[in-house]
Amino acid sequence: MVAARVVSGRALVVAIAVVLALLGSAAEAQQLSPNFYSRTCPSLATIVRAGMASAVQREPRMGASILRLFFHDCFVNGCDGSILLDDTPTFTGEKSAGPNANSARGFEVIDAIKAQVEASCKATVSCADILALATRDGVNLLGGPTWSVPLGRKDSRTASQSGANSNLPGPGSSLATLISMFGRQGLSARDMTALSGAHTIGRTQCQFFRNRIYNERNINASFAALRQQTCPLSGGDSNLAAFDVQTADAFDNAYYQNLVAQRGLLHSDQELFNGGSQDSLVRQYSSNAARFNADFVSAMVKMGNLLPPSGTPTEVRLNCRKVN
């Protein structure tokens, strides 16, 4: 009987611990708030906006590059600034992963903004939150929507090269793969199609679209010929082309108009409009910019709420490139 009571007591302790852990996870998820730094760093939004305005003025493409960094960060163990960590002799992070090596860019912009934030609010604001705000401002500065960014993220003390290699969809992904990979992050097919609209800005390298412009049939012939001018059959792998042939540096719904006209640059782009489940939504976005903007904002906030797994060591980094 005594033994039974001991077992029962232990079971109760375990049960309470589980409940507390779940409550802790819920509390962690709920701590994100647009007002998180209202008292500790009231100048944060102004500093980040000014930094991004300067960066985009120098190079409009930078808005797209920062947006891509945020996406690649959030899809690997949550939005924790892990993509910003440099490799060291004893640490290999996400920068050298296949989807990021020689293509992820904009780190110096985040560094510059972080330095300004640190000068104003020492050891207070995470790199992950700076990246989230910079992403919103980059989109808005290029003519896109703005939104209230939930804040309160912490920076991971580690990164996952394997996670970056396995969690990020590639330029040759099929529609089924895209839906599956976004679904693993808790994002719906609608979220995926709206987030893909990020390709209304930015550029990509010839090596990622060469096969499409030479070998695929569901492509506008004149568009293929135009892109072949800067992407030969061999060589020129790093030559750049804009995703959006109409308005390369304007955040609008032209990306979807291009898909309807079979002018998607990547195979994965055109998969959204290729006789599949997202065709009707692409048509809707192509003719209704307001609907696209609303769904894009909703999906961005949803993606931005992805947090590292419970128990992940975190901190507020003083330097975005290395742990404290």
Automatic annotation (TrEMBL):
Binding site for substrate: 169
Site for Transition state stabilizer, residues: 68
Cofactor note: Binds 2 calcium ions per subunit.
Organism domain of life: Eukaryota
Active site location: 72 (proton acceptor)
Annotated segments matching region Disordered: 152-171
Bias type Polar residues, positions: 158-168
GO MF term set: heme binding; lactoperoxidase activity; metal ion binding
Keyword Lyase included in the entry's annotation: no
First and last residue of the signal peptide: 1-29
Statement: the UniProt record of this protein carries the keyword Iron: yes
Catalysed reaction, written as an equation: 2 a phenolic donor + H2O2 = 2 a phenolic radical donor + 2 H2O
GO BP: hydrogen peroxide catabolic process; response to oxidative stress
Amino-acid positions noted as binding Ca(2+) 2 in the UniProt annotation, renumbered to this chain: 200, 244, 247, 252
Co-factor requirement: Ca(2+); heme b
Binding, Ca(2+) 1: 73, 76, 78, 80, 82, 94
Cysteine-cysteine disulfides: 41-121, 74-79, 127-320, 206-231
Keywords noted in UniProt: Calcium, Disulfide bond, Glycoprotein, Heme, Hydrogen peroxide, Iron, Metal-binding, Oxidoreductase, Peroxidase, Pyrrolidone carboxylic acid, Signal
Residues binding heme b: 199
UniProt-listed Enzyme Commission number(s): 1.11.1.7
Similarity section: Belongs to the peroxidase family. Ascorbate peroxidase subfamily.
Protein's recorded name: Peroxidase 1
